[in-house]
Write a structure and sequence with these properties.
398 residues; 8-stranded mixed sheet; Nucleotidyltransferase, domain 5; alpha/beta; globular; binds adenosine-5'-diphosphate
């Protein structure tokens, strides 16, 4: 079966077509600037790149363009859209309702809409993507895969915040966690890679990309994660602040006479790597500047290294030890130095790095020393394959 994976943003629609016979990607594409001047669609399939600049007023039009590109006589990998057996949609917030992926029906769409207050930027876009695909492929089964679902196994001691309990009961204020699909994939893959049973391991997964989160997976279940009610909590990220003293908000807002929306905008869009370094939100730029001796870039690096290290220490404590530590996503997969610096000082946990093996980027490699009690792995993440597998398994069950 061929499965289409869709990740809809507010003005974009990313897609991938996967042949489940061999789990190979047949086509990848992106419709961008939807509803904005200069919208275009880019697709790569069978080594052929296809770019179409055309007005796309909304996600329905973008979905039509996507199908046209996929079935294009010259560059399209499909003869007919009926070859698409199912569509898997990435959805940000499943709240407490969704602990696993589900077939999309009216009720599921309503539940995604109900979670809009929890994911105000992503859920409306995800929903638009679903509705658009339903409109252009009304007979194709669709599945929703939630970023939060994997973390739903967390116990209350990990997900309840230290505010009056009524905020949890009344407003569903709690830790949800994100990047669940990635944490799930790399942790399961780590066990497979090591030839061990998933349920026997204590795993810490470090997803370090533009957005970053760390998760503790104890004997097959997620027991804690660094992102919270929203993706703002945790370590410093490209432009997000990560965790901070909440009283800082009032202090800055009063002093600079800004409102809460402006404040949150600063915490989401101009903080983290960008805000501290004053250089860029991209780790490569920070690394280059630090190599040239830029002091703020060096501090930025150190804050990130220490931040990740602290979560590893905390999660090892929560699980009573750790067997496997995984690094993934843009920074985790491509940052040999970051991995060394994060792991420096964690020898007391039984983790010892092999500096030579660690000189690797974007490959599945055990980068720990032969005599390390903790295996430290680099595992490139593959969220699309998880979405595709969940989709296949749900639609073939029905
Ligand atoms: P997203 O969260 O948007 O999926 P990615 O996982 O692609 O992001 O991660 C983006 C981050 O990865 C950026 O900070 C980028 O600098 C970093 N990155 C990508 N390639 C490299 C590299 N070769 N060396 C260091 N950092 C890298």
């Amino acid at each position: 079966m061929k499965i289409l994976i869709v990740n809809a943003g507010s003005s974009s629609l990313k897609y991938q077509l996967i042949d489940m016979e061999d789990e190979q990607t047949i086509a990848k594409g992106l419709a961008e600037r939807i509803g904005i001047e200069g919208s275009k669609l880019t697709q790569t399939a069978n080594g052929k790149k296809f770019v179409a600049e055309a007005a796309m007023a909304d996600h329905v039009e973008a979905s039509k363009f996507m199908l046209r590109a996929l079935t294009d006589k010259e560059v399209g990998p499909l003869k007919d859209m009926s070859e698409i057996g199912a569509v898997g949609h990435r959805v940000l917030h499943g709240g407490e309702r969704f602990t696993a992926s589900v077939i999309i029906d009216e009720e599921v769409m309503d539940a995604i809409a109900e979670n809009i207050p929890l994911g105000p930027l992503h859920n409306p876009a995800n929903l638009m993507g679903i509705k658009a695909c339903k409109q252009v492929m009304p007979d194709t089964p669709m599945v929703a895969v939630f970023d939060t679902a994997f973390h739903q196994t967390m116990p209350p001691k990990a997900f309840i915040y230290g505010v009056p309990f009524e905020y949890y009961e009344r407003l569903r204020v709690r830790r949800y966690g994100f990047h669940g699909t990635s944490h799930r994939y790399v942790s399961a893959r780590a066990a497979e890679f090591l030839g061990r049973r998933y349920e026997d391991l204590r795993i810490i997964t470090c997803h370090l990309g533009n957005g970053s989160s760390i998760a503790a997976i104890d004997h097959g279940k997620c027991v804690d994660t660094s992102m919270g009610l929203t993706p703002l909590e945790g370590v410093i990220m490209g432009t997000r602040s990560g965790v901070l003293d909440p009283a800082i908000l009032q202090y800055i807002m009063n002093n600079d006479n800004i409102d809460i929306d402006q404040m949150l905008d600063i915490l989401n869009k101009s903080s983290g790597l960008l805000g501290i370094s004053g250089i860029s939100s991209d780790m490569r730029d920070i690394d280059n500047a630090a190599a040239e001796g830029n002091k703020r870039a060096i501090i930025t690096q150190e804050i990130l290294y220490t931040g990740v290290k602290k979560y590893i220490g905390a999660y090892a404590a929560v699980m009573g030890g750790v067997d496997v530590i995984v690094f993934t996503a843009g920074i985790g997969e491509n940052g040999p130095r970051l991995r060394l610096k994060v792991m420096e000082g964690l020898e007391f946990l039984g983790a010892k790095m092999d500096e030579q093996k660690n000189e690797v980027r974007g490959k599945e490699v055990d980068v720990s020393a032969d005599d390390s009690a903790v295996r430290v792995l680099v595992i490139p993440t593959n969220e699309e394959i998880v979405i595709a597998r969940d989709t296949l398994s749900l639609v073939t069950q029905h």
